[in-house]
Amino acid sequence: MTDTTATALVCTKPGDSSVLEVQDVEVSPPGEGEAQVEVAAVGVNFIDVYQRQGVYPMETPFVMCSEGAGTVRAVGEGVTDVAVGDRVAWAHPVGAGATTANRPAKDLVPVPDGLDLETAAAAMLQGMTAHYLVNSTYAVGPGTVALVHAAAGGVGQLLVQMITAKGGKVIATAGSEDKLEIARRLGAVAAINYRETDDLAAAVRKANGGNGVDVAYDGVGKATFDASLDSLRPRGMLVLFGGASGQVPPFDLQRLNKAGSVYVTRPTLVNYTATREELLERGESVLGDLAAGRLHIEIGGRYPLAEAARAYDDLESRRTTGKLLLIP
Ligand code: NDP
């Protein structure tokens, strides 16, 4: 096999979306343990933004994006997990933003019959994230009361659905009336516009009959962290899983005592898909639920690779709901 030319979304240096360029790149034949995939759709995620900005330091230039789905066109030596012609999806590692890409075969999850590749691409990173957050970081069950910030966003919409499906109750927050309506439609019992609320923790407690919540899912970070902490019941858990508004500054651990012996954790997907077995369990569960209609993903926008900068500007400026995709 010889090198193939692909069109790729390249981050040329750390910065805002203006550092992104679409370039032709050479893709070598798949190496040992790799599969070469013709990419059908690429997911847009906040981790791409953190990598582009240099918040997560990267050596530039690099091919952007971690999530996608496509069809295996060739496999390298030693690959047994997938075969040529398989439809696959993945959440990791970076380098997926291209028409053709070599992916580690161990990171590929089979896409079930009946599920289109765009939905599969949309589901992998945010879907498996919501899955571990409600099953493994905190075991949501019947009667669990959960606070979900940015509930109309990508991870947010999936959290609301998964918590509700387990018999839990969601108190949602979002930044506009349209977004609150999305959260209510998905099953949230209360929805609060945090851009118009002076005392967010008091509003959350009021929505929960004066009590603190069992668990707060916070991917907004800097802007909501204090309110999340103050919204918990004694021994409740704050799950800080992102920083869409900025990273949370260092804080005094005594605050956990004052808030009622509460827990704070800062989980990340890679630790919850650490083995192939765990990756397949989560990935197949999420894709299977989508194929069966038990879970729904709103595709909030599709952008050609050449318009990726606009997709990221839209995501970062809070204009979007649901999931954004790049179509190579
Ligand atoms: P979203 O679609 O949720 O977009 C982010 C949302 O956050 C916005 O739409 C906005 O909703 C809200 N927001 C609040 N303040 C700001 C701000 N200052 N700037 C931008 N957005 C703001 O994104 P994702 O679903 O892709 O990701 C959500 C979070 O989950 C991110 O922090 C991401 O890093 C994290 N994440 C973490 C993972 C992990 O394993 N730890 C894996 C995947 C994602 P509104 O207008 O309603 O306020």
TrEMBL record:
CDD domains: QOR2. InterPro entries: ADH-like_C, ADH-like_N, ER, GroES-like_sf, NAD(P)-bd_dom_sf, QOR-like. GO terms for cellular component: cytosol. It comes from the Bacteria. Keywords: NADP, Oxidoreductase. Residues 15-326 form the Enoyl reductase (ER) domain. GO terms for molecular function: mRNA 3'-UTR AU-rich region binding; NADPH binding; quinone reductase (NADPH) activity. This is Quinone oxidoreductase.
